[in-house]
Design brief:
This protein has a domain of 92 residues. Helices cover 92% and strands 0% of the residues. It has 1 helix and no strands. The radius of gyration is 57 Å and the shape is rod-shaped.
């Protein structure tokens, strides 16, 4: 074997290098396409991150609104309970006053009847005086 390169060997090496160049060009084209695809995916991921943050902010706002409404309802419930307690206290006070009012009404009725009977007795007395003692006056 000789250390010299023959023409056929050189041609074979050139064809191998051409194939290798073609393969490398294909690999480079594929790599560029993949990098372009990866860049597009990164942009899509960024867009999704932004969309998620926007949706999260909207959701937080909705939860805060619902929370505010629950707090408002709780406050209204407390107010209604306080008003009901005040009404119940007034009803209890009225229930306590009803027997007193009955006693007061009975006392007033007794006084009125006493006044009416006294007036009736006085009228009868005056009538009797006029009838029986009319000529002495």
């Amino acid at each position: 074997m000789t250390d010299q390169l023959t023409v056929s060997d050189a041609a074979l090496i050139l064809r191998g290098l051409e194939r290798l160049t073609t393969v490398l060009e294909t690999v480079q084209t594929n790599q560029e396409a993949m990098q372009s695809e990866i860049k597009g995916m990164r942009q899509d991921i960024q867009d999704l991150k932004i969309e998620v943050k926007v949706n999260q902010a909207k959701t937080d706002e909705r939860f805060n609104t619902v929370d505010q409404q629950f707090k408002s309802v709780d406050q209204q419930f407390i107010t209604v309970r306080t008003e009901i307690k005040a009404v119940n206290d007034k009803v209890d006070d009225l229930k306590a006053e009803v027997p007193d009012l009955g006693k007061q009404q009975q006392a007033t009725d007794n006084k009125l009847l006493g006044f009416v009977f006294t007036g009736f007795a006085t009228a009868l007395g005056l009538l009797a005086k006029v009838i029986f003692f009319a000529d002495k006056a």
